[in-house]
Amino acid sequence: MASNRAHAVMVCFHLQGHIIPFVNLALKLASKGFTITFAHLDFVHQQISKSQYNATQTDIFAAARSSGLDIRYTTFSDGHPLDFDRSVSFDQWLEIFRDELPDKVDDLVGNILQSDSSTAPSNYFLIADTLYTWPKKIAQKYGLVNVSFWTEPALVFSLYYHLELLRENGHVPVNGRREIVNYLPGIESINTKDFMSYLHDTELGVLHDIMFGAFDDVKTADFILCNTVQDVEADTISALQQKHPFYAIGPLFPADSANNSIAKSLLPESSSADWLNSRPPGSVLYVSFGSLAKTDKKVILEIAGGLLLSGVNFIWVLRPGMVDSITGDGGVLPEGFEDGTRERGMVVPWCSQNEVLRNPAIGGFLTHCGWNSILESIWSGVPMICYPLFTDQITNRKLVVDDWRVGINLCDGESMSKEEVAEKIEVLMSGKRSQELRQEIQKVRTTFQNAISVGGSSDQNFDRFVLDVSQEILRRSCH
């Protein structure tokens, strides 16, 4: 007999910054009694499996199921073999992603609905990343409630959402101008320099088709979830709620250590716990530019120079492939850097960021301003030096530095010097300004903690979503 339990088909976006909150959302929904079928692309599953000690792992949610959560796991192909290098053939792959992936998802959803006799067809619903362009089509074909999950702040969502209004007023593309925009609903004012990088671009390609197309599609969603906190983006969220059922449910972190062990990393994680435990509290600067963004060698050299000048203890994540223009022998650090900092520094290719940020030795974070990094840094009470590179990171910086005052800018001009890097490190790690930043971040951290506590804004919003989506599924099943 088919169950009346609501069953979410969750299709995750392929980037690290999306995988982490998507997995955490699946765990949270399952803990509320939903059945989940979670889908990764085949190549993403392969990367996650390779990054773990158990490279033959076939089910990343096995531990969650053993703890009583009803989460099934499946994978599907993007149409390319696993060994196809999607980064080298990025433009070609993007076209496949735009044009052919929707049919792959169609097959996936159709097979899930056909093969599962334990759930009544009317009890299924779809949760897809907002950056996908196909949810409307798939949801309509199978009669599914359509839930869009936005993994970035509401401010960034709103800017994309109001793209046509920005175009009508001549503010997109930005084209190098710096102008104040004060006519967007729920956004008191924002400088065009703080727009996401895709709104600056004058030459539009396949990537822009996907991004902008996704925001046409999301306007038809039945519900929109956002990994942010209502209390820190109240006006923006309130304005969006005038147009759509929009729920701020963040920050999405695992509720317990057992589910925290579920594999989410696309790269093998080095452990630095022993080294960090040997350092004094608040003495170590953590440096990481995330899983995706690239920069050039000059930036790396100036940061290295700044770390040398500052004398600070540090742990630096230098991800393989992060530097665009590697020259000569392929080295990116200045000669002698690692030998000269061996007693106070550690350079790793990747790490468990949460583990690092939560260590008492960490006193600051030099970050690219990825949204997960910001949420994790605030949650750990670690103030930031901001060096955004592209996409939402530019807008996220505004929230961190200008609005919440929990971080500072790395460089105030177009370029940076090692002297400026050293100066900003000193400001962040010690002195009056450092104390002010720490006081402010504790306030925001408390706001976050209150939001996800029982009766807090995110807790209430999540429960409201659970009720609303359940009622909508029931309403449709009765028709």
UniProtKB/TrEMBL annotation:
For this protein, the Enzyme Commission number is 2.4.1.-
**Family annotation (CDD domains):** GT1_Gtf-like
Q: List GO molecular-function terms, semicolon-separated.
A: quercetin 3-O-glucosyltransferase activity; quercetin 7-O-glucosyltransferase activity
SUPFAM superfamilies (UniProt xref): UDP-Glycosyltransferase/glycogen phosphorylase
Alphabetical UniProt keywords: Glycosyltransferase, Transferase
Alphabetized Pfam families for the sequence: UDPGT
Q: Enumerate the Gene3D superfamilies for this protein.
A: Glycogen Phosphorylase B
Family under the similarity heading: Belongs to the UDP-glycosyltransferase family.
Output this protein's name: Glycosyltransferase
Species assigned in the record? Perilla frutescens var. hirtella
Q: What is the lineage of its organism?
A: Eukaryota, Viridiplantae, Streptophyta, Embryophyta, Tracheophyta
